[in-house]
């Protein structure tokens, strides 16, 4: 078994287990699981934050930290703890150009704040509503530490239609 | 538009786990702004769904032309309500808990059940008779308010419920339903829902 498969298997397993916890009806049991996770993540997160702080204090360490963000397994952990060397906005912006080429659309990052990335799309000849889910998935994959992605439609150059009700209904 | 909450395979676990451990604040379902625990609701008439909304979107989109109607949350017990068994039978409603809603094109009965809400047209003459006996029914806001009748376990209660309360109650019933008849727990939950006073948040 390659390391890559192991990472993927582990991530898939975690996802299934979280889905299982989401289905638990007993609020006390859910809350206990949530609190246990939060405590463990706090413990690890503080230790990892100290490690990264030491790394970035040193020029060589800074390069090392940056490189580690590219390793799939380390990337998953850094994203989980909110410690990825690139900010969510940088990762979203980096994901834009390949998406524009792949789907033949124009994308503009309006803002990344309060846990949400807002992106404006000019779909060109494509269909806005059918492009949105795929583009949203790729963007959230780049920044799973956000809690939402909103894609607004550019109706004319520089004019954005924010949250057209019909689009909200489809979402 | 809000694009749903799925990522590609790789980082879905990270997203799911973070969401479980740190549940995000609710967002406006129209513009995705973060919401306070007390916020407005809009009924999206085309799909019959209640959407959580921020004040600005409520103001901007809460009109029939935009396809949304403002929902003013309320849960009022109608203490002097007159509904005889004969009047109830005239509606030909097959279960003990139902919501009656006035619409522009008539009157519908909503039946909450294990598969969600089933909607059926019901007897308009029976409604006219009932309105004569209970003039306050004329005040029910079309589409967004219901006359809720609870005859579970021998009760004979009538409520004026906003549609968000109806959907929330239907959700409780669906979640707690077990077996063919629902099981004892579900009916306890329904009674508890009607008995408690606190406001509905979501």
Mean pLDDT across residues of chain A: 86
Termini separation of chain B comes to 21 Å
What class, by secondary structure content of chain A?
Answer: alpha+beta
Number of helices of chain A: 7
**Main sheet of chain B?**
6 strands, antiparallel
Low-pLDDT runs of 5+ residues of chain B are 2-7
CA distance, first residue to last residue of chain A: 39 Å
What composes the largest sheet of chain A? 4 strands, mixed
Overall mean pLDDT score of chain B?
Answer: 87
Helix count of chain B equals: 6
Identify the strand order in the major beta sheet of chain B.
4-9-8-5-6-7
Q: What integer value in Å does the Rg of chain A equal?
A: 19 Å
* Helical amount of chain B: 25-40%
Largest two-chain interface:
A-B, 53 and 40 residues
Shape label of chain B: globular
Oligomeric category? heterodimer
From the helix content, strand content and strand pairing of chain B, which structural class follows? alpha+beta
For the secondary structure, the number of strands of chain A is 4
Query: What sequence of helices (H) and strands (E) makes up the elements of chain B?
Result: HEEHEEHEEEHEEHH
Strand segment tally of chain B: 9
Strands side by side in the biggest sheet of chain A: 1-2-3-4
């Amino acid at each position: 078994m390659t390391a890559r498969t192991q990472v993927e298997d582990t991530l898939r397993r975690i996802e299934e287990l979280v889905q299982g916890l989401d289905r638990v009806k007993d609020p006390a049991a859910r809350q206990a699981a949530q609190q246990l996770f939060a405590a463990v993540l706090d413990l690890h997160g503080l230790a990892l934050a100290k490690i990264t702080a030491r790394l970035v204090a040193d020029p060589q360490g800074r390069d090392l930290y940056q490189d580690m963000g590219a390793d799939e397994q380390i990337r998953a952990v850094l994203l989980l703890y909110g410690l990825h060397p690139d900010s969510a906005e940088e990762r979203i912006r980096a994901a834009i150009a390949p998406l524009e080429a792949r789907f033949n659309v124009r994308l503009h990052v309006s803002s990344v704040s309060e846990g949400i990335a807002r992106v404006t799309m000019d779909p060109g000849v494509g269909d806005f509503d059918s492009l949105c889910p795929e583009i949203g998935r790729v963007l959230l994959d780049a920044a799973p530490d956000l809690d939402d992605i909103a894609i607004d439609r550019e109706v004319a150059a520089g004019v954005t239609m924010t949250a057209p009700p019909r689009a909200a209904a489809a979402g | 538009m809000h694009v749903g909450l799925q990522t590609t395979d790789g980082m879905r676990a990270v997203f799911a786990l973070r969401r479980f451990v740190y549940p995000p604040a609710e967002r406006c379902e129209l513009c995705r702004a973060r919401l306070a625990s007390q916020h407005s609701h809009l009924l999206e008439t085309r799909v019959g769904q209640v959407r959580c909304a921020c004040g600005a979107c409520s103001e901007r989109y809460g009109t029939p032309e935009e396809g949304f109607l403002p929902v003013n949350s309320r849960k009022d017990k109608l203490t002097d309500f007159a509904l005889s068994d004969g009047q109830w039978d005239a509606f030909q409603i097959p279960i003990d808990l139902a919501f009656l809603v006035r619409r522009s094109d008539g009157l519908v009965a909503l039946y909450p059940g294990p598969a969600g809400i089933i909607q059926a047209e019901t007897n308009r003459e029976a409604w006219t008779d009932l309105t004569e006996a209970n003039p306050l029914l004329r005040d029910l806001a079309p589409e967004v308010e219901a006359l809720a009748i609870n005859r579970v376990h021998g009760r004979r209660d009538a409520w004026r419920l906003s549609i968000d309360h109806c959907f929330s109650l239907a959700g409780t019933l669906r979640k707690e339903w077990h077996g063919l008849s629902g099981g004892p727990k579900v009916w306890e939950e329904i009674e508890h829902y009607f008995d408690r006073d606190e406001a509905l948040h979501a």
